[in-house]
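Notebook entry, structure prediction.
Reason for the run: the old model in the group folder had no record of what sequence produced it. Starting over properly, with the input documented here first.
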Amino acid sequence: MPRKSRSSPDSVARQVVRLVLDIQEQHVSEAVAVERVRSPQWAFSQEMAEQTAAVSREAMSAGRPCDAYLYARLALEASDIRWGRTRSSPWWSAADALVDAARLCLAAEPDAGRFRLACDVVDQQVALLRADGDVVELAETLFAAGILRVHPHAAVALDIAASLGMRERQETRHWRRDVLIADRRSPEQGECMPPALDCAMEALTYLHEAVDISEGHVKGRCLNAAVEALNLVQAAAPQPDRAAWIDDVKLQYSRDALRLLDPEAEPHARLQMLRVLASHGEAPPVRSLADLFPLPVAGLPGRYGDQHAMAILDQALRLLTERGERDLLRQLIAEVQENVAHSARAVVQRGLWDAQVHVLEGDVLECPAPGGPIEIPKNARPRKVLVSTRRRNGPPRCSTWRRTCTSAVTASGRCSSSSAPKRLGWTMPTLTCRQLSTWLPTSAPMRAPCMRREVRPSLP
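New structure, fully documented this time:
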């Protein structure tokens, strides 16, 4: 059988995969890989470009946004040099894939060059759609342009509870500013990402235009994204004099978004809006888990993919915790532990631990405000709490912990935190809640068959 030529489709596909692996392993730079795919020596067909963009979308579904970005970038560059930047070119589908991947990849790996490229690409799409007069797709692309500028800075900030009041927001502004500070540098060029506040304000320009020209579900998505951008504005530059006004705008956007969003298409966005409404006492009652999800918990990963499904569950855990729905929280934790695979559950394991300590038996106290005084009932009895790990065929071994964060009550009745390894246990009142959640180790193994967590209160 004759050997395939260098320019055969199989050969080109292997070279694309090899290039992506070489970039990941830092054997070649991204710029060198781009030069290669733009070279006329590569027999890059339109079908191959479409397939490479499809591989990028598959990587996104599998929770690998940085892999998805690289495949989309190579497809984009190969299409640009051969067929131009038009809606009929494979460049268009590659551009869609690149913008979608960049917003999540940049949150994990800040890169000013990649950010500029993604912004330029989506802006070119917006310009083409304006020229064609396609209002429907223009609204969706303006939405993509907006969240592209928000998510790289706010991926860690979007989990800040929308229900934080001004006092709590001021108390936590320091660590949030550390997260959102503009000094997020490109690994290769040492450049800084644009300031978070500038990106948020620019995003609002795109999103407000999208809201004006869209309707129905698309308009609901744009309003939800605008709430996320306003969260970023508040996190990046807290301004007490404007906080009430921004909160009112977020509340109105959330009301409208909840009315317009399709619950099955965007369950994550819907839960985000419910959290905002709940913080103002306007959320509709939640009588069962069916009021939160469009289908049973076990079916979420199959319908939305592991990564998106875990984001949905995380929002639900936070909503129920903030509302104090302990019975429903217990049901949801049990459903997740029973029906969601450990490999997928590891993404929200920290959130599960935090939710579990809010529904421990005997915990009847409300969560105190961050840094605020802890009211200890007179009849509270001190208990020794042993937090340990148990191996499959052995006794509990607290010494296996690398690091444990503990929270203690000082003589003044205020909460103070310290980090220290703990071999056994310690004595404290039965406060649990968020204080106990901080004891969970950040480096704890996620593989439950090998190691299982235990939180066992016992009398001294």
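Summary: The CA atoms of residues 392 and 450 lie 6 Å apart.
The old model has been moved to the deprecated folder.
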